[in-house]
Design goal:
Elements (H helix, E strand, L loop, with lengths): L8 E3 L6 E5 L4 H9 L3 E5 H6 L5 H4 L4 E4 L11 H10 L8 E5 L1 H13 L6 E5 L2 H7 L4 E6 L2 E8 L4 E4 L9 H18 L1 H9 L1 H4 L3 H21 L14 H10 L6 H18 L5 H14 L10 H9 L9 E6 L5 E6 L3 H14 L6
Helix pairs in contact: 6-7, 6-10, 7-8, 7-10, 7-12, 8-13, 11-12, 11-14, 12-13, 12-15
Bound molecules: nicotinamide-adenine-dinucleotide and zinc ion.
Length: 363
């Protein structure tokens, strides 16, 4: 990190520190990498939209254009990527560079962690979700055997070059997907923090400076949590707020709902279920619902079959043999991990929410 600046956010990890480098012009950072023999994995849509700015990268000897689909992010697709990197003569010490969103990140990280027993990698996130959340924290997972995110490692990049300029070409649903993760991190920081971003919610979409400030704040909130528990054994588990339900929503709808929007609905479900189980209070469900509902708009009536949802939920990594491991708000709105039985009360609350909880406030 020769060119570190005061504005960089440095994260410590078991592989040493790495920095999020906030840059107005990310392309200036890429040309030297292209000249240094790095191997690039570029989101195919980003390669097309930014063909002029990325010209030095796209003209370099080793470039792979990645289609951002869940199928591409699976163990079944890895042989093609491996063949490409072998044919391009990947050597130890040479680095991989991912330019794209969470899918390009997860593919590149998996290859970097496993090829030649590990090569360094860098990341230029181009989606809001990747900028505000997934770029830090070392985690990455790919799909396999028909299950999402079942294979992975904890392997942070060497550096992250972050430029909010990429957001201007992102589809609105993908912006809201990233905002979903930002709302999550702020809720974990506490009710006051969530209420602050909720009050500024409309400005996120109209004022780039407001978006950048909350984006940075999201990473600042996440930093001490992932530093304290990089391997997801204790305090970091709360970062999965909205995710057990969110992953089940993605799976039960065959990924018709983008990840961060499923997480948004998942937080509302968590708030509602927690109150119904007597662990939380409807006050927090009501306090957060209007903002969450704005963020999931357009997905009010996507059908979610209850049986498929419960079957997916039963496979969650946090479950024990007897109970579901859920991340729920307590009566003070503090997000905690609890083990809850999948009993009748639980099922009834979930069924009620899935059938009408997205289009109306429940009581
Ligand atoms: N590793 C982690 O910690 C972590 C965390 C959260 C999510 N994820 C994973 O990330 C994936 C979702 O990632 P994502 O939401 O970042 O998106 P993505 O990579 O799926 O990309 C979303 C869409 O945006 C396009 N795109 C990317 N950048 C663009 C830009 N600047 N302008 C226009 N279009 C652009 C892509 O081509 C794609 O069509 C999921 O597979 C999820 O499981 C990983
Ligand atoms: Zn997520």
């Amino acid at each position: 990190m020769a060119d570190s600046r005061e504005s960089d956010l440095v994260i410590s990890s078991h592989k040493g520190p790495y920095a999020v480098e906030f840059r107005g012009d990310p392309f200036a950072e890429l040309s030297p990498l292209a000249a240094s023999g790095a191997h690039f994995l570029v989101d195919a849509r980003v390669a097309e939209l930014y063909s002029r700015e990325l010209a030095p990268v796209l003209a370099s000897p080793s470039v792979l254009r990645v289609e951002a689909t869940e199928d591409a992010k699976s163990i079944e697709s890895m042989p093609g990527f491996v063949r490409h990197l072998v044919s391009k003569g990947l050597r130890r010490g040479q680095s991989l560079v991912a330019i794209g969103g969470g899918i390009t990140q997860d593919i590149t990280c998996f290859l970097a962690a496993t090829m030649l027993r590990g090569v360094p990698w860098s990341f230029v996130p181009t989606t809001l979700l990747a900028m505000a959340d997934s770029c830090v924290g070392s985690k990455s997972s790919i799909n396999g055997g028909g299950a999402k995110n079942v294979l992975g490692t904890f392997t942070p990049p060497k550096r992250i070059v972050l430029s909010a300029g990429f957001l201007k070409t992102l589809d609105e649903k993908d912006v809201r997907s990233g905002v979903g993760e930002m709302l999550k991190v702020h809720a974990i920081d506490g009710p006051a923090s969530f209420d602050r971003i909720a009050a500024d919610y409309p400005r996120l979409f109209t004022e780039p400076a407001v978006m950048t400030a909350y984006l940075r704040r999201s990473l600042e909130i996440k930093k001490p949590i992932v530093e304290a528990d990089e391997f997801d054994q204790s305090v970091r588990l709360v970062m999965n707020y909205g995710h057990s339900f969110g992953h089940a929503l993605e799976s039960a709808t065959a990924f018709a709902i983008p990840h961060g929007i499923a997480v948004t609905i998942g937080m509302d479900l968590a708030n509602f279920v927690s109150a119904r189980l007597g662990l939380g209070d409807l006050v927090h469900y009501r306090r957060m619902r209007a903002t969450l509902a704005m963020n999931w708009r357009g997905y009010e009536s996507t059908p979610v079959p209850l049986d498929d949802f419960l079957a997916a939920l039963a496979k969650d990594k946090k479950n024990t043999a007897k109970a579901l491991g859920l991340i729920l708000p307590d009566k003070d709105g503090k997000i905690r991990k609890v083990d809850a039985p999948a009993d009748e009360v639980f099922r009834a609350a979930v069924a009620e929410h899935l059938s009408k909880g997205r289009s109306q406030e429940l009581s």
